[in-house]
UniProtKB/TrEMBL annotation:
This is DUF4270 domain-containing protein. It comes from the Bacteria. The lineage of its organism: Bacteria, Pseudomonadati, Bacteroidota, Flavobacteriia, Flavobacteriales. InterPro entries: DUF4270.
Amino acid sequence: MTHIIKRSIAIFSMVIFGSVLLYNCEPDPDSLGEQLFLDGAATGNEKSFDLIAYNISNNDSIRSDASQLLNTVGLTTSTAVLGAVKDNQFGKQKVSYYTQVRLPSYNPDFGTNAAVDSVVLVVKPYYEGDSLTTNTYDDGFQFGGENAKKIVSSYPAKKYGRAKAPKLTIKVNEVDEFLNGFSDTAYSNKEYATGQEIGSADFTGNVSAVTITKDSDGSSLFTSAAGYRIPLSSSFFKTKIIDKKGQSELSDMSNFIRYFKGIKLSVVEDDAYLVQFDPNALEMIMYYKYDKIENGVNTRPQATYSFSLAAGNAHIGNYKYDRAGLMGFPIVTGDTNVGDSKLFLQGMGGPSIGIKIPDGTINDLKKMYQKDKSAIVSAKIKMYIDGSWTNKYAKPSSFTIIQKDKDSGKDVSSFTTDLLTLVGSNNFSLFKEYNTDTNQTYYEFTVTKSIKDLVEGGADNTNKLLKIDIGSFLTSTSGALGGYQYTSRAFAVERAVFIGSGDVSNPNKIQLKVLYGTK
């Protein structure tokens, strides 16, 4: 979704709104300079200038711990990823997920002669809420000895990749290596040792919600939110949990997370699709029976025990890449003097795009400003998707752009000047997308204020490097941006190939488009 910023903000408190915009017209002037066009006061002209755009290698690694997936700084998005995709531009990407498990309370009492009936892990992928299939079961159906009706509501999960792939075979393994603490740093290329497989199931692409009501009065007997249930080993939990009743392993949190170190979710397939899910919404439920004497009869009632898999646990995404045999894929950071012919952009630790505004471009703009009194009305970085990117993946719809000091020798990053100063202006957007339903898709990134400062002398007229990534800036529940470093890049599944600056003869190479007004 294209994120459009619509409210004025202070530097440390900004509001960003999102909506889908599909433009097929000429760029709009930013309100920063639109007064030049009022009442025929000026003539608008557009001119293109060269840029240097290059690939930035991130070593296929990114922070993917709870601070990134659960956004514990109070931001709104909580997302993890599972699955696998493969294409001839980016190679193979296989995504697994680790989480710790905790007890809701310690020294639990499961009763006498407790035995496990079943255990399920419930994963809740994000799904298409407007595509619903309903099945009703009421002919002789019973629940808990009551005549009842069961309604199953199914929705297709949101997928990225081969949306029509038949399945993902999801495996659940016990983790054999301590995952450290909830607030500890973890990176996506780190694999943790795992032990026995404790469950598996075929995910065929749908999630289901279940409602069971009593026939006699319509009262609710059971409800479950839309999700996917994976059966786990009853014998494993009998040995691992029930049989440890009263022992030190279940006595406190510190002992327990070192005894039962966690679970890993992974997939068997190498080329299917990626699904995103809410790690805070994971459920692991154990159903068991125990002795209970009532009126001299052992009734053996069924009980449930829900483990804690949400906040407080370590949550880690593991992203494995196989780039072998790819032609032209950037293994290291690309040409920062001329730029690369193709630009590769991928979330989840994949490559970024770096952009330098050449000093010659700035000097040409300064001459126009000083000699011809040409005032910049709008400045955009225009970037086309490369013709080689012809698969059926969804076109990218979320980006971030930040600025970095060029000559300080330090990695000092921040929001762009435009994001900090123009967000309250009419017609302002961080980026816009055009022609997304054609093979001439392109994007325009607003850099008006940044360029004006360089040319006309603003508060900060230092030439900055720019960096573009897949993902979006994250906001809090109040709408305030958390900071330039808080983005969805750690779990953003999109990718694309763009036309760079190295192919100098290509009319669609990445360029700076400046709209200026003259008296």
